[in-house]
Structures are given as C-alpha cells and as structure tokens.
Specification:
two-stranded antiparallel ribbon; two-stranded parallel ribbon
C-alpha cells in the first residue's frame, strides 16, 4: 500500500518571506545605527532621516523583531480643515491688499503719469533710444569698440558750435534738433 503525502507550499513560503523580511530589517537598522553594514548596503538606497530613534526593548514584552515602521518619525498634520470663510479672511486681510499710491505726478516733459522722484518710463525709453544712436555714431567715428580714446565726449546737435571748453574732447555731431530733455553742459 502506497501512501500519498501532500505538502502545502503556502506555510513554507510564508515562513521564508518572514525570515527574509526580518533579515532585511535587522540589516538596515544595524547599518543606520552605526553597526556593521551588510555587504549589499551601499547598493540599497532608503530615504530616511540622519538620526533614527532606536526602538525601546522592554523585557516584559514579547521578543518580536524590531519593525521598520517603529523608527519612522511621523509629521504633524492639521486636525480640521480650514473653512472657506477663514481662508478668505486670511487672504483678504487689509494688510495684504495692494496699497493705493498717492505719490503719482504728471511728467513735466511728456505729460505721462509717473511716480514722484522716479524717472518717467516713456522719457527713459526716449533717452535710451537717443543714447543708442549716439553710440552708433561713436562706433562709426572710432572704427570699433576697442579703438575708442579715453577722453570726454561732447554731443553737438544742429546749430551748435564747439566752445573753447570742448578743446581736446571727442565731438559727436547729431543731424537733428537737441531734445528738450537732453541738457547742454
């Protein structure tokens, strides 16, 4: 008579997985606490804080293996959701609103609005364009940026003649009327 013995692989597989998991946890905790790290330690990357608290071992408790979840630092979370009224009151606080500006003035040159004691943006654009044209004239006269002499530059417009103070200075002539905002020194 032959006896047929059937083994169920499920309990064996479960025991094998438990042993593997306990070895993995003990190796990780030993590596983090400064002990000898396993040979596969550098190959395994785990994001964790630099200092992991060690689980407390009581002699009264059962001798279970330390779990990886025992050493996680839990973050604080709000207990209740903020209501929409509270959120709106916080966001619309009068201290956070845009302040009304009272230092607005009219530019005396162009008539556009500007802040007091601040250069008008429209006038600045005109000055920038005129400066660019003067630099082009200087580039044509000198033949390049590295050939410019280290002397003072005087800009003369239509109908202007150089004075005796302008002797020895570089003179740039512009074929247009002097703008009202470009003062003559």
């Amino acid at each position: 008579m032959a006896a047929l013995v059937v083994f169920y692989p499920l309990p064996r597989l479960r025991a094998l997985l438990q042993r593997c998991w306990q070895r993995l946890e003990s190796g990780l905790l030993a590596g983090f606490s400064g002990g000898q790290s396993p040979p596969w330690g550098p190959a395994l990357a785990v994001q964790a804080p630099a200092f992991l608290p060690q689980p407390v071992h009581d002699t009264n408790e059962s001798n279970e293996a330390a779990s990886l979840l025992d050493s996680i630092l839990w973050m604080a979370v709000p207990k209740k959701r903020r209501t929409i009224e509270v959120n709106r009151c916080r966001r619309r606080n009068p201290n956070k609103l845009i302040k009304v500006k009272t230092n607005i003035d009219v530019c005396p040159e162009c008539g556009n609005l500007k802040q007091k004691h601040v250069l008008c943006g429209y006038c600045y654009a005109k000055v920038k364009a005129e400066t660019r044209l003067i630099r082009k004239e200087m580039y044509k006269q000198e033949g390049g940026p590295f050939n410019a002499p280290t002397i003072e530059t005087v800009v003369l417009y239509d109908g202007e003649k150089p004075t005796e103070k302008d002797a020895g200075k570089r003179i740039i002539e512009r074929a247009r009327k002097r703008p009202s905002w470009f003062a003559q020194n």
